[in-house]
């Protein structure tokens, strides 16, 4: 029997598998497809990302350096309100390669990472969990047992549903596609033209330019996406889409299971970004949970909330501004734009006394 079975090998699952294996546990990590695919993510992250990957991976992953964002309440020809730093704010990275690199780190640490393994059922017993798994290219199913299961299986988590854990407060629908023309510009564009969220343009260096948006369910995302690319007058390719969970459920643990990453909606409500929050929570899980002691799950539940809840709460506040009437958005953007001193994963840095004083 394994100590931990990890369902899903995205950033959260790979990171947890690596850290738990580093701690000497027997770890099985199951990924339904091929690690990193299909792509449904911009890979726009703070420079903290480099703490999670080996130095030698940097050249392979890095695509562009970003110094700020041009906010607009209309299309590309409307007035831009720039927010920027003199130093880089964030990087654009190859997201598929990130997942592969993180999975390799988990393998190197000793985790048994298996692709083409889809978990179809999860059963929680008194002293163990039992997973039913369908293996690509094989008939029937196989079963695996572990002392605990980590649900790192993304926004529509099967583990969450199988164990009757509550759902995130909200799920947005995100779409993106690429124009292959290289662009190593310093700014991303953010258009507050979408209900309760935004549309974006991200220069990705030699990998081209990404256009995307996210919106609540029911919004006509495809039509809004066509409107976005036609205002830029570009043809895009490799269209992809994915779900973005916002607002963590009240409970992310059971007696022998815990959720990490998008499965637990550990995301930034004002950008939808979840790569770094998910890996932060994965590290917390690996350092707090003992598979022989189910009581330690409550330590994880409170530790990840202690670390991320305040940022998530403040992130909700920032997101509310996206729904202000246009005139108020203009007033806000005009008065706040300029050089900023914030960390993109930490809305608390925006609300810090030091930064507010600078703005005033
Ligand atoms: C359009 C869009 C743009 C985004 N842009 C950014 C961005 O720029 N920066 C950022 O930080 N975040 C971004 N995000 C969010 C980011 O992609 C997620 O927060 C991140 O991928 C969460 O990582 P995870 O490991 O929790 O889940 P995932 O990356 O979703 O990984 C879950 C894994 O579980 C696997 N899986 C699912 N079910 C099963 C099963 N039953 N059995 C086995 N395996 C299973 C999946 O195949 C997947 O590999 C974006 C999301 C979208 C939709």
UniProtKB/TrEMBL annotation:
It comes from the Archaea. GO terms for molecular function: FAD binding; oxidoreductase activity, acting on the CH-CH group of donors, NAD or NADP as acceptor. It holds the Pfam family FAD_binding_3. Residues 3-170 form the FAD-binding domain. NCBIfam families: GG-red-SF (TIGR02032). This is Geranylgeranyl hydrogenase.
């Amino acid at each position: 029997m394994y100590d931990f079975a990890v369902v899903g090998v995205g950033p959260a699952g790979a990171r947890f598998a690596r850290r738990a294996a580093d701690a000497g546990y027997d770890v099985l990590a199951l990924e339904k497809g091929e690690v990193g695919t299909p792509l449904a993510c911009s890979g726009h992250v703070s420079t903290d990302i480099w703490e999670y990957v080996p130095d030698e991976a940097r050249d392979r992953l890095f695509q562009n350096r970003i110094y700020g964002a041009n906010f607009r309440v209309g299309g590309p020809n409307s007035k831009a309100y720039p927010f920027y730093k003199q130093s880089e704010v964030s990087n654009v990275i190859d997201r598929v390669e990130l997942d592969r690199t993180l999975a390799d780190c988990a393998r190197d640490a000793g985790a048994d990472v298996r692709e083409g393994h889809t978990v179809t059922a999860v059963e929680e017993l008194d002293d163990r969990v039992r997973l039913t798994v369908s293996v690509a290219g094989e008939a029937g199913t196989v079963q695996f047992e572990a002392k605990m299961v980590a649900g790192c299986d993304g926004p529509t988590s099967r583990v969450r549903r199988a164990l009757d854990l509550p759902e995130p407060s909200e799920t947005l629908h995100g779409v993106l596609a690429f124009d292959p023309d290289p662009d190593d510009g310093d700014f991303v564009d953010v258009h507050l033209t979408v209900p309760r969220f935004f549309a974006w343009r991200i220069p990705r260096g030699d990998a081209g330019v990404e256009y995307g948006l996210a919106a609540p369910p029911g919004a006509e995302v495809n039509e809004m996406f066509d409107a976005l690319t036609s205002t830029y007058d570009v043809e895009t390719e490799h269209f992809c889409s994915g779900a973005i969970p916002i607002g963590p459920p009240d409970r992310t643990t059971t007696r022998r299971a815990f959720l990490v990453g998008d499965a637990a909606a550990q995301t930034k409500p004002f950008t939808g970004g979840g790569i770094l929050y998910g890996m932060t929570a994965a590290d917390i899980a690996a350092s707090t949970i003992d598979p022989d002691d189910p009581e330690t799950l409550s330590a994880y539940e409170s530790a990840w909330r202690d670390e991320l809840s305040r940022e998530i709460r403040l992130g909700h506040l920032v997101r509310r501004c996206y729904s202000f009437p246009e005139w108020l958005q203009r007033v806000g953007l005009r008065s706040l734009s300029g050089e900023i001193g914030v960390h993109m994963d930490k809305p608390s840095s925006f609300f810090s006394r030091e930064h507010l004083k600078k703005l005033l």
